[in-house]
Amino acid sequence: MAEQKSTGAGKSGTKRQFRIWRGDESGGDLQDYMVEVNEGEVVLDVIHRLQATDAPDLACRWNCKAGKCGSCSMEINGKPRLSCMTRMSTFEPDETVTVTPLRTFPVIRDLVTDVSFNYEKARETPAFAPPADLAPGDYRMQQVDVERSQEFRKCIECFLCQNVCHVIRDHEENKPAFSGPRFFIRAAELDMHPLDEKSDRKEYAQREQGLGYCNITKCCTEVCPEHIKITDNGIIPMKERVVDRRYDPLVWLGSKIFRRGETPQTSVTTPRSGSAAHSGSPAGVHSHAGGSHDPRAEAQAQRGVNWHREVPKPTAPAVDDRGKLPLTELTFDRAAAPSPFGDDVTFPLPPEHLNFAHPEQDKH
Amino acid sequence: MTTTTRIERHHYDVVVIGAGGAGLRAAIEARLAGKKTAIISKSLFGKAHTVMAEGGAAAAMGNVNSRDNWQVHFRDTMRGGKFLNNFRMAELHAKESPQRIWELETYGALFDRTKDGKISQRNFGGHEYPRLAHVGDRTGLELIRTLQQKIVSLQQEDKREHGSYDARIRVFAETTITELLLDGDRVAGAFGYYRESGEFVLFEAPAVVLATGGVGRSYKVTSNSWEYTGDGHALALRAGATLINMEFLQFHPTGMVWPPSVKGILVTESVRGDGGVLKNSDGKRFMFDYVPDVFRKQYAETEEEADRWYTDPDNNRRPPELLPRDEVARAINSEVKAGRGTPAGGVFLDIASRLPAEEIRRRLPSMYHQFKELADVDITKEPMEVGPTCHYVMGGVEVDPDSGAAFGHVRGLFAAGEVSGGMHGSNRLGGNSLSDLLVFGKRAGGHAASYADGLTARPKVSVGAVEAAVETALAPLQRDTGESPYTLQQDLQAVMGDLVGIIRREGELVDALGKLAELRERVAKVSASGGRRYNPGWHLALDLRNMLLVSECTAKAALERRESRGGHTREDFPAMDPSWRRVNLVCSLDGDTVRLERKPLPKIRAELIRLFDRAELAKYLTDEELAEFDALVTDAEAEEASK
Ligand SMILES: Cc1cc2nc3c(=O)[nH]c(=O)nc-3n(C[C@H](O)[C@H](O)[C@H](O)COP(=O)(O)OP(=O)(O)OC[C@H]3O[C@@H](n4cnc5c(N)ncnc54)[C@H](O)[C@@H]3O)c2cc1C
Ligand code: SF4
Ligand code: SF4
Ligand code: FES
């Protein structure tokens, strides 16, 4: 056993081809490197070897090298990843590894991007409001009650979720109004905190953080290295409860009557599914509850908003002739990122397939 | 010269260097005291080393066992540090950590809970009662995120009151301080560069708090990140402050040495407790050769007996793999130096051939998943390659225990956290660091604020000093004849890892000092290619001189201390020597050479020393001290009797 293992360590590595984006805000391109790779290494190890050999000034962020600090985010073969957690053995032996900076944030140099957007959004999110009547040491909370918030506090702020969210990826114009999944779960965390005094976290998320822009594509959940269920446990409950409050029948009626200049939510759906939906019997309902048998969801669906509805599943773009995804912008055949709706979906989508709550609608 | 006029300048009352637990807590305190405060960090906000801490934060809250109190915690801390701790720091730490932890809850922290809804506390080596407040295995993350969010909440307050988030507290992320600037013997400011642009920046401030963490990057195998280059230690020395206890570094005997993706990650000792055995490259289970005489009676002599112990501990002696940490580390070290190590410089830790895969996964779930995910190593199938790993530095800036003000001939300089020395003596107990950060972070921040208040005139930064700092910083970029910083770093790590590592010998230490002197010449001529914008080669070139200076302190102090204690093990002086307990080794800078002096330890106050049994004290104290202790006890008894 000892011998078998020592050969592993001693084996001088094979040379692998890397393509790394080098440049700064004024432009740059992918550069090819042949670099030694040893058994058991991760992408970050290889980048460090490059720094120590061919590219001493190659810029990249890292700290813990153990998936705990969220510094080393980059796009590896087009996928947003932590480079310290991406093993070389996940690639084919002769596969070229292409490493590019996060696309949603402006490049500073090479693999380092300006993530200050996230810190600005963090600063705008209202802080924990401690209960005024409790002295330090007197806080009492049950484990079951803190667990929901604890899930969100696992966040290592790698900003990979922010990076994939199509609302701001390639949509600079949405950035001022949209905080992104990382800060939706921050709001959710505080909302679910057993002792937080502030009671309008969801409304705030809807009003100020742009929660309404999110159409639950779940891309954020998919990339989260901490496996936080960002959409299912964070965003959807936030939306649901906003909906619950907003659609309190009386309030809802009131808003229909008094907000005349605006399009009522229901009108979006009535032309197509309204008649069937109003039959009242569950069997006859053809809403877009996406196969959900939850009556509450069904009821919401009748009003045009249903967060359980299945929007078209994100589909990966076509693979190339090697069966791989040509995912970086430079190798991709289209001008922008692959659509999170899937490139096989044509627009406009039928309106009943959309979940839409206008970010302004709660301001009144 | 025009360079200095173009440098960005900021004016603050308190500048905190470091955004880990200690730095953030200090900054919060300074801001609460009404001071205009800057926080400076080499990496992004919220990424400092503190995020890596897993186990928990020790505080005698008594939530799980109500018999726990500060006296017990104090006692554990002193034992852990083998009585070399600054007793006053250990006392303050034990008394104040519960408040500091509770305070975090008011900032929004969510610790794991007990059944009755209090903060849960877990057991940890060296702590008599369950004492570590924790959140799963991510306590450090919770701590840093909570403090980060508290700072945000203060900024929101300032925005409401003054119209700007940055009005009274501002974070300068990815900014490295390379020099402290003085006005006579008073701190006048800090000079550094933005990593992003390579532009220089000058902070003018009468009070500076150092919270820069440790020095582990000088070692080949370490659990520490690139930030741990001993900057704060070196800045303090160059400003005229002193360092103590630099010979004490905490090494973990079994950190992974291979594959590289997990190098430095610690393998819990429970792997050995659950049946894991250590083997050399010949496949031999070598620990049987390393049982010291004092332990002979308790440890098995044959593999058969050792293996029986796991199922029948009452009738068999323990396997030698379960010897204390230092012994295990010494054995591994000897095997590797005798050429029987793995190519990566470790030995094999084998649990795969000892337990069924199912059982391993059940008993060591997080180990199993960590290595599977990070390195594709299946610990149920193959042995791990492990070796001693540098983890924590006990030594640091010598400070006044109550205020965190640095000793030596400098005023206005404060230090807290891993960069300060004294609190942990010769060895730190697990969990004591996180609470140390909070207790002394708060103290340093508060005292820095009141020091700034007490000044009648602000110290001034001299133009000459700034020019010199600019020149030093730019030098590696302007040379193209020197060596690459990466090569130099590797060479330094080799010297420290091989010669000033976990087990030390006089000859090797002398050798190390010679090699460090050579390296010093080479580092002085280092050159970095590329430009000023986010250039890691240049950054490393600037960090090297700090690493080198701190390494010299460690090597010198290690050579001087002729005994073994806590994190300092001398093969040629294997025993603890009570007369050395009375001595701190203090490093200072004289020109550019490190000077080492002996300084007596402060004497433990009577009511504190009386917390210990005489029998226990006898292990640590000299006869003379014991006689004093006896006199103390007799006096006290007499006094009681006379009442
Ligand atoms: C793997 C691991 C596990 C651990 N587990 C535990 C545990 O369970 N319990 C426990 O109590 N302790 C634990 N520790 C120890 C503990 O985490 C550290 O000692 C502690 O976090 C140090 O905190 P700090 O505030 O002193 O410094 P850090 O958190 O390291 O922060 C240092 C800061 O200083 C900044 N800095 C450094 N140099 C400069 C410069 N020149 N200019 C500007 N900024 C600079 C850095 O950017 C950083 O922000 C662990 C350590 C490791 C490595
Ligand atoms: S679900 Fe999709 S749209 Fe919503 S935040 Fe996540 S990535 Fe963005
Ligand atoms: S939620 Fe997940 S993906 Fe998003 S920043 Fe946090 S850890 Fe990263
Ligand atoms: S380096 Fe910390 S997450 Fe990768």
Descriptive notes:
The complex is a heterodimer of chains A (364) and B (643). Chain A has a 5-stranded mixed beta sheet. In chain A, strands 6-7 form a two-stranded antiparallel sheet. Chain A is elongated, with a radius of gyration of 24 Å. In chain A, a hairpin with a 2-residue loop joins strand 3 (73-76) and strand 4 (79-82). With 364 residues, chain A is α+β, with helices and mostly antiparallel strands. Chain A folds into 3 domains: 14-112, Beta-grasp domain (Ubiquitin-like (UB roll), Roll), CATH 3.10.20.30; 116-258, Alpha-helical ferredoxin (Fumarate Reductase Iron-sulfur Protein, Chain B, domain 2); 268-364, no CATH class. Chain A is 30% helix and 11% strand. The termini of chain A are far apart. Chain A contains 12 helices and 7 strands. The radius of gyration of chain B is 25 Å and the shape is globular. In chain B, the strands form 6 sheets. Chain B has a 5-stranded parallel beta sheet with strand order 7-3-2-11-18. Chain B has 19 helices and 22 strands. Helices cover 39% and strands 16% of the residues of chain B. By secondary structure, chain B is of the alpha/beta class. The mean pLDDT of chain B is 92. The chains are: A alpha+beta (364), B alpha/beta (643). The interface between A and B is large, with 71 and 85 residues.
